[in-house]
Amino acid sequence: MAHIFLVKDIAFQAGLSTATVDRVLNGRGGVRRQTEMRVRAAIVELEKQQAGAETAARKFAIDIVMETPDRFSTAVRAAFEAEVATFLPTVFRCRFHFAEVMKPGELVLLLDRIRLRGTHGIVLKAPDVPEIVAAVARADEAGIPVVTLVTDLPNSLRAAYAGADNRAAGETAAYLIGERFSGASGQVLVTLSSGRFRGEEEREIGFRRLIRDRYPQIGITEISEGHGTDAATGTQTARAIADDPAINAVYSIGGGNKAVLAAFEAMQRRILIFVAHDLDADNRALLAAHKIGFVLHHDLRMDARSAFRTIIGRQLSGHPAASSPSTVEIVTPYNMPVPG
Known about the structure:
Layout: H1 7-14, H2 18-25, H3 33-56, E1 59-67, H4 70-84, E2 91-99, H5 104-117, E3 121-125, H6 130-141, E4 146-149, E5 160-162, H7 166-181, E6 186-191, H8 198-214, E7 218-223, H9 230-243, E8 247-252, H10 257-266, E9 273-277, H11 281-288, E10 294-297, H12 300-317, E11 329-331
Parallel strand pairs: 1-2, 1-3, 3-4, 4-5, 6-7, 6-8, 8-9, 9-10
Antiparallel strand pairs: 10-11
Helix pairs in contact: 1-2, 1-3, 4-12, 5-6, 7-8, 9-10
C-alpha cells in the first residue's frame, strides 16, 4: 500500500492504533476487511489534504490583457479583484493591461513580452485574427495557459473560454425586440465595436438568425468599427439614422450607449426598444433612468472564477478545469443586481 505518510499520521486520521495500521500496511494477517478499508480511506484523505495545502500555499501571477472601452475594463478589474479574495489562502496577483484600441501588432508584442518575462497565465480579450492566434500558440508552447474572456479564439490553443454563450445572447436580444413589435414592421440599429471580435460576431449571427426566421418583417441596419467609444459610435449612429428614417430600435452589441441615445435625441427620433450588453456603470445609470429597456448581463465574477480555476488546474496538474459558459440574465430597471 504505497504512501508517503508517517504511520502515526495515518493512525490519527483513521482513528486506529499505530500497531493496527502497521499491520495493515505490511500485509500481516488478522486484520478485518473493514479496518483495511479505514486505513486506505485515511491515506486518500491525507493525499487530498496535502494537495489542498500545496494549492493553498501557491501564489499565482497572471496577466489580464484586453482591448476594450474603459467602462468595461473597469467592470472587469472590479470583478477579478473581488474574486481574488474568495481563493484565499491561494494568492492571485493580477497585472492588468488595458487599452480602448490596440492594433493586432501591438497586442502581439505585449503577449510576447509577457511570455518572455514569465507569468502563470494570461486572460485575454482580443480580436480573432491569425497573428493573435499565433501569439497564443507561442504562450501555450511555453507552458502558459491562455483563457479567452467574453470573446473567444476557438481555433487557437487557448486553454478555456470564460464568458457567456454569445450566440444565445444574440438570440435573446432578437426575441425581446421581435416580441416588442408584435408583428409590426421595424428597423433595428445593430452596433458593434468591431467585426474582428468573435464574441460580437456570434451575438450578431444569433440575432440575425432569429430575426430572419421568426420576425422577417424587422429590418437590420449595422454599424461597426466605433470600438465602443462614445465619439466614434455617436458619429456613426447619427449618420445611420439620418440615412434611414425607419430605424426605431437599437441592439447595442458594442457599447457607447450614451452616445447612441444622444444621437437619437438630437434628431428627435423615438426608440421603441433598446437592448444592451453588460452592467457597467454607464448601463446601470441608463437602465435606472429608463433610457434603455433591457441589459443582457452575465456575471463577470463567474468568468474570473472560471479563469482562475483553469490556470490553477493547468499549473498544478497540467489539465485545465472544465468550464462552461456563464448564464445570460435579462436585467430591467427593476431587478438590477447589487454591484460587487
